[in-house]
Amino acid sequence: MSEQQRRDLDEMLRHAPLDVGGDVAEARAVFHEMMTSIPLPPDVTITPGQLGGVPVVTVETPGGDPSRVLLYLHGGAYAIGSAADAASLAADVSRRSGARAVCLDYRLAPENPFPAAVDDAVAAYRELLDQGVPAARIALVGESAGGGLAVATLVALRDAGLPQPSSAAVFSPWADLTVSGESATSKAALDPALTPRALRTRAADYLGATAAATDPLASPLFADLTGLPPLLVQVGSHEILLDDAVRLAARAAADDVRVQLQVWPQVPHVFQSFAVMLDEADEALDSAATFTRAHWSAAGKAAAGTAPNAALPS
Question: Is this structure's pTM higher than 0.90?
Answer without folding.
Answer: yes
